[in-house]
């Protein structure tokens, strides 16, 4: 405890004044336990009798209350602590990196945040949380805490987790990797950041999908890359529109394009791999939720078709388990593996070991597979509820892009432009419904109004009620008032 003594008069008097000031200014709030006299005497370098005398005076004046067998407590409320007021200071960016941070990222206005005050919200990017997962994960963590070594983990990741990831990828995604190829990271965002540092110089060109995931786009822009958007259609990235002058890196989400939901066709996958091989460029494959397909057999990952080892494959457990886990992985091409491991070491020395060990155990003992099966069944029920409700209630007013995968749908407002779409989102919010525009994911705004409707975090009953409110808003909206 920090207690300055003013040097005036007896030590116990100085201590009384310091403790009173701490109580009156709120630094010692009402009900807080005072330190034991022996401990405080040791901390201040005074005799215990000095502290005893000070405590006795504080009790006499009503500042302290003694509780038998428990200790002494602050007995009266003081004024709340007022932090020192300093005028806000806005300095010029101190580096090129800081200039790009300010240009491309606005932390206060990121897409996808929950709409304030919404009774029902189609918030996307929020995964389904299985209640059974909580107890299973608690057991895995408890087991890992006992057996995990307390020293720094290896930067590449715990061997047990890398082995478990390889087995999982071979079974689920058709990727045959070796444990030495795996680099454990905190998620997709760190994976793209490390990749940018390893393969890009400032000013290098990167092909990115149009539309695309904003966080990957911003990470590349902040790194200093020059982005070349290439359109996406129903078969994924339009490989016939790849630039003649090859980029250094191509970023794709082939198994479930974000945000459109398109699945890249086999022909385009082969065309993309051939392009990368011929032009000596790298592919960053973001397989963020390839586990969840509802009406079709999951396709093998692009990395599983890659014979030339040009694909930097990344996946995350945040979407299939829970976002706070912050664990994912990179399957590193042999030529980049050591550089990626070194970049990870520089970034944070390695991901938390106890969580890695718990996840390895969860994967190895079948808990993860059981979780995936339960989650996929529940998500299909919720997706079907949303599709059925929209088709029944919204009818001809919307067009639905059904991707047969993931945890969101893209819904287009038929015959409505972008301005009308933004006005409709505001109108729905006034009726307690949270809606989300597709606009932030485009470099060039689309010609029509599009929405991302997430269903992962909503029950079937909530989905049906939210869809009803959605339809009511469509009918009540004054479309003619918006140009």
TrEMBL record:
<keyword id="KW-0805">Transcription regulation</keyword>
<comment type="similarity">
    <text>In the C-terminal section; belongs to the class-I pyridoxal-phosphate-dependent aminotransferase family.</text>
</comment>
<dbReference type="InterPro" id="IPR036390">
    <property type="entry name" value="WH_DNA-bd_sf"/>
</dbReference>
<keyword id="KW-0663">Pyridoxal phosphate</keyword>
<dbReference type="Pfam" id="PF00392">
    <property type="entry name" value="GntR"/>
</dbReference>
<dbReference type="GO" id="GO:0003677">
    <property type="term" value="F:DNA binding"/>
</dbReference>
<dbReference type="InterPro" id="IPR015424">
    <property type="entry name" value="PyrdxlP-dep_Trfase"/>
</dbReference>
<dbReference type="InterPro" id="IPR004839">
    <property type="entry name" value="Aminotransferase_I/II_large"/>
</dbReference>
<dbReference type="InterPro" id="IPR051446">
    <property type="entry name" value="HTH_trans_reg/aminotransferase"/>
</dbReference>
<feature type="domain" description="HTH gntR-type">
    <location>
        <begin position="9"/>
        <end position="77"/>
    </location>
</feature>
<dbReference type="InterPro" id="IPR015421">
    <property type="entry name" value="PyrdxlP-dep_Trfase_major"/>
</dbReference>
<dbReference type="GO" id="GO:0030170">
    <property type="term" value="F:pyridoxal phosphate binding"/>
</dbReference>
<keyword id="KW-0804">Transcription</keyword>
<dbReference type="Pfam" id="PF00155">
    <property type="entry name" value="Aminotran_1_2"/>
</dbReference>
<dbReference type="InterPro" id="IPR000524">
    <property type="entry name" value="Tscrpt_reg_HTH_GntR"/>
</dbReference>
<dbReference type="GO" id="GO:0003700">
    <property type="term" value="F:DNA-binding transcription factor activity"/>
</dbReference>
<dbReference type="InterPro" id="IPR036388">
    <property type="entry name" value="WH-like_DNA-bd_sf"/>
</dbReference>
<protein>
    <submittedName>
        <fullName>Bacterial regulatory, gntR family protein</fullName>
    </submittedName>
</protein>
<keyword id="KW-0238">DNA-binding</keyword>
